[in-house]
Write a structure and sequence with these properties.
Order of helices and strands: HHHHHEEEHHEHEHEEEHHHEHHHEHEHH
Distance between the termini: 45 Å
CATH topology of the largest domain: Nucleotidyltransferase, domain 5
Radius of gyration: 22 Å
Largest sheet: 6 strands, mixed
Structural class: alpha/beta
Strand content: 15-25%
Number of domains: 2
CATH class of the largest domain: Alpha Beta
Strand order of the largest sheet: 9-8-7-6-10-11
Shape: globular
CATH architecture of the largest domain: 2-Layer Sandwich
Oligomer: single chain
Helix content: 40-55%
Length: 430
């Protein structure tokens, strides 16, 4: 039923009017008048008078519309995601305007599906959590506008969550669910996805969390490099899974890619800034190197033929497309992936050593990459440092991570102001 509602939404059967009216289902509308009279609801929650611990999380920062219900940041009751891959695939990347429109179509049925899967109603929730940023402005606004309206109508607090913090809590959530415990702290978090490549030192601060940014990309994110190289080679979208699936069939030593060290300014050598420069990433150069390799080796005709043949097979899975790849292309893909994963590994473990991390966590869409997981796990074992990854479902954008990250904020009364809005460039930590 939930899948049908989402399909109906994608077909345009839910209008903009539905965003304000149909979002309040029969259960909710029957209680609306009574609920709005309880002006002290938020104050009661802050005093701990409400004990369900249920938070509805909403995520719409890029091209997935997601809603989830999580209890006390450690138990996922529902996690529903409506993907837009089919919408953006013809363009080889996310089209912001199309993403916003799809969010408008999907958000109502996705929230309904999450509540139905969790077996709860709006009245059972303690709070609403939503991604504030970073992300696409229009996409973020859909989720924030819906969440603000819903929180106001229900008389419940709204918690604004940084998307990057959400990725960190995706790992922490599953650690509690599967092992009943947190990682050792301080933890070094590598958040690596299509839009982000960051390193954070994460520490507990009372019931909340504190983050220090100790590494970042100076240009493209690692996931963006995967997507753009895949597009350059005539692969499908998103590019990460295509490269991941094809890399094992090539020789990772065939093309000797390398990364230049991002240098600190000469007059600041030996400073904290110089130390931080050793954990800066840059992935624009390897994209150019791949392009140059295809030009020098005259691979253009083969790439266009592959692009054409794949276009004739919409929906084909990466694992089913080996026949479209020659050895030279497979070697190039394997070498590219090996180089990117190697750079991420070297700088992450360097940061872990420099900043005295007691554990390591890797999250974000690129954390689903199989070579990355294998090599990071092997290196962690050799160094004697625990490492944790989210499940594949929580590696990519989802709302469970948003609801989980919201729980510490909810517990400390850190609620969003009525003026909260989308912040596409929102930073995390010091």
């Amino acid at each position: 039923m939930a899948e049908q509602e989402i399909a109906d939404a994608s077909a345009g059967e839910i209008s903009l009017v539905a965003l304000g009216a149909e979002a309040l289902d029969d259960t909710f509308s029957g209680e609306l008048g009574e609920r709005l009279l309880h002006v002290s609801t938020i104050e009661n929650v802050m005093r701990g008078d409400s004990g369900s611990g249920l938070i509805l999380g909403i995520e719409s920062s890029c091209d997935e519309t997601a809603a989830a219900v999580v209890r006390r940041g450690e138990e996922t009751l529902a996690n529903v995601v409506a993907s837009q891959i089919a919408t953006h695939s013809p363009y080889g990347g996310v089209v912001p305007e199309l993403a916003s429109r799809e969010h408008l179509r999907n958000i109502v049925p996705v929230v309904r599906a999450a509540l139905a899967e969790a077996g709860v109603g709006f009245a059972d929730l303690d709070a609403i959590a939503v991604t504030e940023g970073p992300g696409l402005a229009g996409a973020l606004l859909v989720g924030i506008s819906y969440a603000k309206a819903l929180a106001f109508a229900l008389g419940k607090p709204l918690v604004a969550v940084n998307h990057l913090e959400g990725h960190i809590h995706a790992v922490l959530l599953e650690q509690r669910e599967l092992k009943g415990e947190d990682l050792e702290f301080p933890a070094l978090a590598l958040v690596v996805s299509g839009g982000h490549t960051h390193l954070y030192i994460a520490r507990r601060r009372g019931e909340g969390w504190a983050y220090r940014n100790v590494g970042r990309t100076v240009d493209d994110a690692a996931g963006e490099a995967f997507d753009k190289v895949a597009k350059l080679l005539g692969l499908g979208y998103p590019g990460g899974p295509w490269i991941d699936a094809r890399a094992p069939h090539g020789n990772a030593d065939a093309v000797p890619f390398s990364f230049a060290q991002v240098k600190a300014k000469a007059h600041r050598k030996g400073s904290a800034e110089a130390v931080a420069a050793k954990t800066l990433f840059s992935f624009s150069g390897i994209k150019t190197a791949v392009l140059r390799y295809t030009q020098v080796h005259e691979m253009g005709a083969a790439i266009e033929e592959r692009r054409k043949r794949l276009a004739e097979r919409p929906g084909i899975r990466p694992a089913e497309a080996l026949e479209f790849f020659d050895k030279q292309t497979l070697d190039l893909i394997a070498s590219f992936q090996h180089a990117v994963v190697g750079d991420l590994l070297r700088k992450t473990f360097r940061a872990a050593e420099n900043f005295g991390a007691a554990s390591l966590l890797v999250s974000g869409g690129v954390a689903a990459n199989r070579e990355l997981r294998v090599r990071f796990t092997s290196e962690a074992i050799e160094r004697g440092i625990p490492v944790a990854f989210p499940s594949l479902a929580l590696s990519t954008d989802n709302a469970a991570m948003i609801a989980a990250a919201a729980w510490p904020k909810f517990a400390t009364g850190e609620f969003a102001a009525e003026t909260v809005t989308a912040d596409p460039g929102l930073a995390l930590g010091d």
